[in-house]
Design goal:
It is built from 4 helices and 13 strands. It is of the alpha+beta class.
């Protein structure tokens, strides 16, 4: 879908938002009153499944999340600003959105060593995904050759193709569009107190 529109599976847009919009959005999110919710993993899989299979015992495999839009419902006051950010980024590549599935904010706290999280896809259907990085850090996003096969959103270790096709470093106001069927992984940083990203899932 994204490749047909832009010729690549992964497209990076620098300075995606006007400076004032980006500053306002970031300030709202890093405010101490902004609500974050603890989740037992970084891919936001079903929490009960994650706990029951024992993976929740890994004390470093957790993150914080905030859902701004899901199931065609606005769920947060940050929705308007975060959606405006998506529209700005899309305008940079001359695309228009036709349907929005989800806006999810994710935050990682640091670890002593760089940790790459489990590969996953965000949704169980073809779509375009987007990432807006709010700060620079050493925790890259990894994009793999493996594509979603219509069965599981989480990878299966025994048959997973770990061929890396792109590795993107978080940088302020950098936006990444990519094919939503591509397995990808976030990672946990070592050099900043937070790694904050806004994750979008949509169709054009």
């Amino acid at each position: 879908m994204i490749k047909e529109a832009l010729g690549k599976d992964v497209v990076v847009v620098e300075d995606a938002l006007p400076k004032e919009l980006f500053k306002h959005l970031k300030n709202q999110i890093i405010d101490y009153r902004f609500p974050w919710h603890h989740v037992y993993n970084s891919a936001f899989v079903e929490q009960s499944e994650y706990i029951n299979n024992g993976k929740a015992n890994n004390i470093y495999d957790y993150s914080f999340a905030h859902i701004a839009y899901e199931n065609f419902t606005v769920t947060s006051q940050i929705y308007d600003l975060s959606y405006a950010a998506l529209l700005c980024a899309l305008s940079k590549v001359n695309l228009e959105i036709s349907r929005l599935f989800r806006i999810r904010l994710g935050m990682h706290t640091p670890s002593k060593e760089l940790m790459i999280n489990d590969p996953h896809v965000d949704n169980d259907h073809p779509h375009i995904a987007g990432l807006l990085y709010l700060n620079e850090c050493d925790a890259d996003t990894y994009f793999f050759n493996q594509r979603w096969n219509g069965k599981r959103q989480q990878y299966e270790e025994e048959d997973f193709d770990r061929e890396l096709i792109a590795q993107i470093k978080p940088k302020e106001n950098r936006f990444v569009f990519f094919d939503g069927t591509m397995y990808h992984s976030s990672s946990r940083q070592t050099n900043t107190s937070q790694r904050i990203v806004i994750n979008y899932n949509f169709e054009i």
